[in-house]
Amino acid sequence: MLIIWQGLGFLAILIPVVISALAQATSDSIFEHGFYTAHPMMQMVALLIAAAAVWVLGARLNNQPGQILVDPKTGQQIEFKKKHTLFWIPMQWFSTVIAAIAMVAAFK
């Protein structure tokens, strides 16, 4: 599978994977082995926390001011901004995809 991102957009995949792995390790160590996989609500909560983290991080990264350059011949201003996207979707909006996956995980 080909993953396309700009800037730090790859974090929209990495954050849910890491948070889910931590949630599984924590819940399996506190309760019993296999607790995380047996309770889909745990998966949903972990993915919703990840969606919130991706939203906050994406909004912060994509709302940073850009660099304004002026063309000396025309005087026209051009703003250069870094984009943080995953599959051409801004990182903060990719959190809705993660939340949708959380809802599917809760009802499977």
Radius of gyration (Å): 19 Å
Report the average pLDDT across residues. 91
Q: Which word captures the global form?
A: elongated
Cα-to-Cα separation, first versus last residue: 24 Å
Which structural class do you get from the secondary structure elements?
alpha+beta
Strand order of the largest sheet: 1-4-5
Q: How many helices does DSSP assign? A: 4
Proportion of beta-strand residues = 5-15%
User: How many runs of DSSP E, i.e. beta strands?
Assistant: 5
Biggest sheet, open or closed, and with what strands and sense?
Answer: 3 strands, antiparallel
Structure summarized in a few sentences:
58% of the residues lie in helices and 13% in strands.
What this model shows, in words?
The chain has 108 residues and is of the alpha+beta class. 58% of the residues lie in helices and 13% in strands. The chain is built from 4 helices and 5 strands. The chain has helices at 11-30, 35-38, 40-62, 91-106, and strands spanning 5-6, 67-70, 77-80, 85-86, 89-90. The strands form 2 sheets. Strands 1-4-5 form a 3-stranded antiparallel β-sheet. A two-stranded antiparallel ribbon has the order 2-3. Helix 1 (11-30) runs antiparallel to helix 3 and helix 3 runs antiparallel to helix 4 (91-106). It is elongated. The model has no long low-confidence stretch (mean pLDDT 91).
Give the topology, please:
Elements: E1 5-6, H1 11-30, H2 35-38, H3 40-62, E2 67-70, E3 77-80, E4 85-86, E5 89-90, H4 91-106
Antiparallel strand pairs: 1-4, 2-3, 4-5
Helix pairs in contact: 1-3, 3-4
